[in-house]
Amino acid sequence: MNETQQSNPQPNEQAARTETGAIKDQTSVSSTSTETSTPEKSPSSGSPAPKPSELNVPRAPARSGAPDSYQEFRAPEGFELNPDRMKDVHSTFKEMGLTQAEGQKLMDLYLKEVADSESAPYRVWQEQQEKWRTEIRNDPDIGGKLDQVRETVARAIDGLGDPKLAREFREAMDYTGAGNNPAFIRTFYRLASMVTEGKAVPAGGPSPAARPGGARPSLAQSMYPSLPSQGA
Fold this sequence. Notes:
- This protein is mainly α.
- Among the domains are: 63-126; 139-196, no CATH class.
- The chain contains eight helices and no strands.
- The protein is elongated, with a radius of gyration of 51 Å.
- Residues 1-7, 13-37 and 199-212 have low confidence and may be disordered.
């Protein structure tokens, strides 16, 4: 009895060994499955999940608002659109699928930026002119007699005896803005005062410039009234 009991394992011990062996087998299978790469299973169907490149994702439909041909786009007054450049614009707008109204919005934005860029230098010029005007109005020497300054300078310019030159000179001052420059005005006023100061009328009658149809004195004669004329 005792030997038989010792040589044969107890039922509980055999079950324990069997359970231990089963556990070892499961561990082995689990380790093997971990090392082998298997495709992912779709949670819903159990089939392998498709790769991103295989996904059939619908793309946004191409815009179809572009007309067969665009009408002329509006531009601000005085602004000319280059016909050759506009061909490229129409082609680009068509590729983008823009409608006529959408293309006009882009054109308005572009033309506004162009206009602002072109007018920037003129705004700087205007600001400088106004700064000069303010300075000359506040000048302690001539600020209070600007009407007299203008009259004196005008007489000096007209006294050159060349209407065409006088006109072109005035246009140059207006174009460049030099006529508002304080240093220019002070200098020219002093020069003009030297050649246009009133002089005593010689005995024998009024000056030729005062007589009807009388010849206007030359610049040299205005500076030196006693200088004999060429016809004398």
